[in-house]
Amino acid sequence: MIVLGSNSDISLAFIEKVLKEGQRFPMMYLFTSNVDKTMKLANHIEAKYDQKCEIIEFDLTKKNNYQTIEHIDSDLLFCASGFLGKNTEEGLYDIENTMKIVEINYSKLIFLINFFAKKMEAKGSGTIIALSSVAGERGRQSNFIYGSAKAGFTAYLAGLRNYLFHKKVHVMTVIPGFMDTEMTADIETPKPLTAQPDQAADIIYKAYKKKRNIVYVTFVWWGIMMIIRNIPEFIFKKLKM
């Protein structure tokens, strides 16, 4: 199993869910830009589940040597890589902030997923599970840089799914709404609309087993975003969203 964004709360919850269900892998490859933190995760997995792990230091904001990961192969890739960055009011004209949001959520990330998608295509098997965001479904003034990167990522996953379907490789897009994770620790979110990582992991795992194409972690977000997507632009631009 290949995990991109290993230190996210959802990655940990999904890894535990998969292992509790009895799946084991020749190796679990944990991609991270924070090796020290991931070391604790790897030790936990190896001790609790007897699952071997290899930590791969890989920072999407830097130039990476893909030859160093040529040996990595698996039929399951889980991607929770993401960076929220500063919101629009704080970060709109901050070039470093904008570059980091775009690189981690889209531009550098799709090179990495493509690298493993090609291997799966060659074998004619595999599953790619990747987290996008409701923020990508319509640009809003509160976080449209992050949202635009996620919109591109959602479109990329849809196209990749369409392409790899004919190669016997499945691509599943996960759309979380509000999540109670470290990434959103500074954001006050409404509890009825906020999911816990364990809840998300259960839903994602069931969807993975059913080979779903798109899954909303909290289904109510499907309805919310359908309404938001259909608000006429001349009204939408006046809203403080």
For the structure shown, list the relevant keywords.
single chain, alpha/beta, seven-stranded parallel sheet, 8 helices
What does this structure look like?
By secondary structure, the chain is an alpha/beta fold. It has helices spanning 9-20, 35-49, 88-91, 95-123, 144-165, 197-209, 220-229, 233-236, and strands at residues 2-4, 28-32, 53-57, 76-79, 127-131, 170-175, 178-179, 194-195, 214-216. A 7-stranded parallel beta sheet has the order 3-2-1-4-5-6-9, with helices on both faces. Strands 7-8 form a two-stranded parallel sheet. Strand 2, helix 2 and strand 3 form a beta-alpha-beta unit. The radius of gyration is 18 Å and the shape is globular.
